[in-house]
Specification:
The protein is built from 8 helices and 19 strands. By secondary structure, the protein is α+β, with helices and mostly antiparallel strands. Bound molecules: 2-OXO-4-methylpentanoic acid.
């Protein structure tokens, strides 16, 4: 195995260029970069990737102390050490993002809507009282990380390099109050499909015993606790043979919200319906891409409250055509079955519906650069 040179301090002379090329950010950043002694890439079986299980050679790290973020640093991926009194472990002041990089050719990697992800991460940080990482530091360090680990971007279609930026309170302090120290990292992981079903339909169930989010809570941001607290109801659902919980609103337990790992869409009588963002639903980047694509195909789109009873009624009438989830990790995930109390519906014969397939092909076609990108969603990274 070739030993790579370390450490190197690099001065990025070409700062990050916004996707829409409206502005060239003039801040030149100094990124300290330490290359791993030995790459672990030969240990990875790119034909059998498990979602989120294997990590690339490097990561980005930034530290918030004395009222400002440090310059980003790229270093070998590896354990980080903290004291048992790490504030985030006790009170969950932690938030994250999820985005993806796609292989285009030997010299080009695509990021999908990275600035939207940065903005959503900023909202997450603000809601959790974590100092946001600015667009320039986020994008410049991310680009440099992807260039450094470009060989980790899987080449086969259907696979991607999943990017996980996250931040948390890192003070050694167990009083429940806003911390004075924070850490920000970006790690990456070569992935295939999120669900074991792949692109095959998933089975969802509602629950009356648990709720995901209430108005005024943290349901509209990627707070770590949103996910941890869904494990127990998800485990119960899985024990009963379902893939995930289909969350209903917390107040009336009537209106459909989302799946927790993805937003949800219903194709009813040719109209695409999805629950509106009202403070309890995550504003998915894939969700808004699906809405924009459907509109561009002249498919009527309604962002409105939809009750679980309405879904069953439309199915009785024969108007329910398809249901699918949309998320960064899940991409487009057809729903084959919904369980609600003692009722069940099988959707599109538990098969992949033509609309979900068309949407999947369009989104992934854009991501891999196979089709034109009129929305300018793809951010190209040139790898030397
Ligand atoms: C994503 O889709 O990127 C998410 O963050 C969901 C997570 C459960 C993998």
């Amino acid at each position: 195995m070739k030993c790579l040179q370390k450490p190197a301090n690099i001065l990025l002379k070409t700062p990050y260029l916004s996707t829409h090329k409206l502005k060239l950010n003039s801040i030149v950043m100094k990124i300290k970069k330490t290359i791993a002694d030995k790459s672990r890439i030969s240990e990875i079986d790119f034909d059998n990737l498990e979602f989120g299980r294997q990590f690339s050679d490097h990561m980005v790290e930034m530290t918030w102390e004395n009222g400002s973020w440090s310059q980003p640093e790229i270093k070998p991926y590896g354990p980080i050490s903290f004291t048992p009194a790490l504030n985030a472990l006790h009170y969950g002041q932690a938030g994250f993002e999820g985005m993806k990089a796609f292989y285009y050719d030997e010299k080009t990697i695509h990021l999908f809507r990275p600035e939207d992800h940065q903005r959503r991460f900023e909202n997450t940080c603000k809601r959790l009282c974590i100092p946001p990482v600015d667009m320039n530091s986020f994008m410049t360090s991310l680009e440099e990380l992807i260039k450094t680990d470009s060989r980790w971007v899987p080449r086969k279609r259907g696979r991607a390099l999943y990017i996980r930026p996250f931040a948390f309170s890192s003070e050694e302090y167990i009083a429940a109050r806003v911390s004075g120290k924070y850490k920000f990292f970006i790690i990456t992981s070569p992935v295939a499909a999120y669900y074991k079903e792949g692109f095959n339909p998933v089975k969802l169930t509602t629950t009356f015993n648990y709720v995901r989010a209430v108005k005024g809570g943290t349901g509209a941001v990627k707070a770590a606790g949103n996910y941890g607290s869904s494990y127990y109801p998800a485990k119960k659902a899985q024990e009963e043979g379902y893939t995930q919980v289909l969350w209903l609103d917390a107040k009336e337990q009537t209106y459909i919200e989302e799946v927790g790992t993805m937003n949800i869409f219903f194709l009813i009588d040719g109209t695409l319906i999805t629950p509106p963002l009202g403070g309890t639903i995550l504003p998915g980047i894939t969700r808004k891409s699906v809405i924009a694509l459907a509109k561009s195909w002249d498919v009527p789109v309604e962002e409105r409250r939809i009750s679980i009873d309405e879904v069953f009624e439309e199915d009785d009438k024969g108007s329910l055509q398809e249901i699918f989830g949309a998320g960064t990790a899940a991409v487009i995930s057809p729903v084959g079955l919904i369980n609600h109390g003692d009722r069940q519906i099988k959707i599109a014969g538990d098969k992949i519906g033509p609309f979900a397939k068309k949407m999947y092909d369009a989104i992934t076609g854009l991501q891999y650069g196979e089709i034109d990108d009129p929305f300018e969603w793809v951010h190209k990274i040139h790898v030397s």
